[in-house]
Amino acid sequence: YPNRVCKLKRSIYGLKQASRQWNKRFDDEIKKFGFTQNRDEPCVYQKASGCNITFLILYVDDILIMGNSIPMLQSVKTYPGKCFAMKDLGEAVYILGIKIYRDRSKRLIGLCQSAYIEKILKRYCMEDSKRGSIPMQEKLKLSKSQGASTPAEMKRMQNVSYDSAVDSIVNTKDMFLVYGGDLKRELKVSCYTDVGYLTDADDLKSQTGYVFVLNGGDVD
């Protein structure tokens, strides 16, 4: 029918603008409720009222809410339900393949991706891989000249399983990132760095690495 369009009754992932329109509408609605968007992490929102604070984390249409006031959390959960069709799944146990562990007596929270790792290993038929201690050989010297250069070599490399890396993942899949635990210590952020001078054998560039630690757990 010329000069006519169809009105959709629900969002469809197939439309290229659907995710943007959803995010824009959610952003507008949640800000009406008093939330402000984090400048550096647009998917993180926060709302403060006196000494109470609530954080809302959005990933497409998955939402994680946390705060220090139960009544405030309940009101936050109720408001989006008035604007969108939502389901409250209760206290978070899994989110985006990450298992959440809590020990409230010791004020500890841990994050683990064992279920996700097992899913990936099974997909590539590598669930029976042996356990390894390190992801790669120590002090291994690598160069571009060792890499694949012809189409045939590149195709063959796609089928090479990096045993040491996979073995290391299998060995550490049940480990947790753990945060908190020290009731007397205030929130503390530490940074550790390392640098190697002229460590790249091909272009003589230096290399550096860093890790930020928040109350005992890596964050970046």
From TrEMBL:
For this entry, the protein name equals Retrotransposon protein, putative, Ty1-copia subclass
Can you give the residue ranges of the Reverse transcriptase Ty1/copia-type domain? 2-137
InterPro entries (UniProt xref): DNA/RNA_pol_sf (IPR043502), RVT_2 (IPR013103)
Question: In terms of domain of life, where is this protein from?
Answer: Eukaryota
> Mind telling me which residue stretches traverse the membrane in this protein?
none
Please tell me the species this chain comes from. Tanacetum cinerariifolium (Dalmatian daisy)
